[in-house]
Prior knowledge:
Macrophage Migration Inhibitory Factor; four-stranded mixed sheet; two-stranded antiparallel sheet; 8 strands
Amino acid sequence: MWITGPAATSSVLPGLRFKGLDYCSAGALPETEGITTVGEVATEGVSMPFVRITLSTDRPEPTRAAVGEGVRRALVSAIGVPQDDRFQIIDAQPASAFHVDRHFLDGDRRDPVVVEIRLTSGRTRDMKLALYQTIVANLSEVGVRPDDVVILLQESEREDWSLGGGKMQLLDEELIRKYGWSPPEA
């Protein structure tokens, strides 16, 4: 099971160990108060996705903010991203900037909201589907039509991330230990 809550500053990074576990499965949960579980995971999970949401300037600012919040909540509930783990760019473009095939693969796109999510590898197919469905449900609550939600998920490895200063923070053993993770055993 994927762990969230106080015990897990969130998730486990691929190839890392958290609190001595490669990943947690049912029956392998550490004895820690306040742990909750979210979904099945086949391999180690990951936190800290980077999200870019592109939508029309015709959508008012409060709706744009609600779309960002709906995506964040979906990441938390569907794949166990920590509550405070938010890296988003919300990019409003004029409607004329969108050149999207309205009916491709039987869609009915009228006012697309494009959600691009980049994260490290480790989610199962079922977790990805749950994420897509939760994003669509959350955005429909703020007035976005389900067919207008286009989601692109891109997975990468830890060495593909630099979170400032030209460094590879997810490979820095000292830094990851500071946040409760431990490097893979040799």
